[in-house]
Amino acid sequence: MNLHPQPFAMIANGTKTIELRLYDEKRRRIRVGDSITFVNTQNPSETVDVSVVRLHLFPSFQELYKHLPLQKCGYRDADLPFANPSDMNAYYSAEQQQRCGVVGIEIKTIS
């Protein structure tokens, strides 16, 4: 899976342990125990391998934001007052979210 540099770095250093995605056909094939390779979009030779620990399924990012610890989703403490589910609209439309649902993929890096 591709990631922008900042979330890539946060996954690589272990501060981001839940990756948020649309629960589309591709993500529906993910199972606990699977390995995922994340690729830095600005430096494709830079990758990090993770193992899927848990899948958190929700009908929308609105619901996901109510139930998951946002620090684990990539928000810094200073950003928490401004965290908003509409942040994810930059990646996925409301129609896509309604059609597919969303998933928080809980991960741990593989040494």
Structure at a glance:
The protein has 111 residues and is α+β, with helices and mostly antiparallel strands. The protein has helices at residues 5-12, 61-67, 94-100; strands at 2-3, 18-22, 35-40, 43-58, 102-109. The chain has a five-stranded mixed sheet with strand order 1-3-4-5-2.
Please give a structural write-up.
By secondary structure, the chain is α+β, with helices and mostly antiparallel strands. It has one domain (2-109): Archaeosine Trna-guanine Transglycosylase, Chain: A, domain 4. Helix content is 20%, strand content 33%. It contains three helices and five strands; from the N terminus they run E-H-E-E-E-H-H-E. A five-stranded mixed β-sheet has the order 1-3-4-5-2. The model has no long low-confidence stretch (mean pLDDT 96).
Short descriptors:
single chain, 111 residues, alpha+beta, Archaeosine Trna-guanine Transglycosylase, Chain: A, domain 4, five-stranded mixed beta sheet, 5 strands, globular
